[in-house]
Amino acid sequence: MSSIPAAADVLDPSVRVLPLPDVAERLHQPITRVHQALRDHHLLAVRRKGVLMVPADFLDEETGAVVKGLPGTITVLNDSGFSPEEMIRWLFTADDSLPGTPIDALRGNRGREVKRRAQALAL
Question: Which string of DSSP letters, residue by residue, matches 92-106?
């Protein structure tokens, strides 16, 4: 079994993160599915104080699923050569043209705009 990828914790300390067992519970999935989502680049994790954590903003509490558009955005960024740290930084960095952060835009159902910006970064 391959190791679970994790980025260095480049998030602001105020960003709420969840340990993987909590992510699995919220997604109503076994933890092995969360591990696979991380390996498949459908989710990103950081290592905070030695523990793998997923930003809480990556999960939609209403649907009990990963925020719509996040896996596709991660794929675009990954294909563009972004490291996991760069992806997380980009998702949580304010963009005046959205407005807000890309993760806020994804949570606000503006995935097309976010993906367009991610694709433009590859050019």
Answer: TS--TTSSS-HHHHH
Alpha carbons within 13 angstroms on the beta-carbon side of residue 21 total 1
Domain range list for the chain: 7-122
Q: Is the dihedral of CA 3, 11, 27, 63 positive or negative?
A: negative
Please report the pLDDT score of residue 75 as a whole number: 94
Q: Which two three-digit tokens encode residue 96?
A: 């005046």
Does the pTM surpass 0.90? The reply is: yes
Q: What is the dihedral of CA 46, 19, 76, 109, to 10 degrees?
A: -130
Whether the Cβ atoms of residue 19 and residue 50 lie closer than 8 Å to each other: no
Place 2 in a pLDDT band, splitting at 50, 70 and 90. low
Q: Identify the pLDDT of residue 1.
A: 44
Look up tokens 């794929």; give the residue: 75
Closest CA to 43 of 77, 11, 66: 66
Q: Which run of H or E residues covers position 29?
A: none
- Stretch 93-101: mean pLDDT: 90
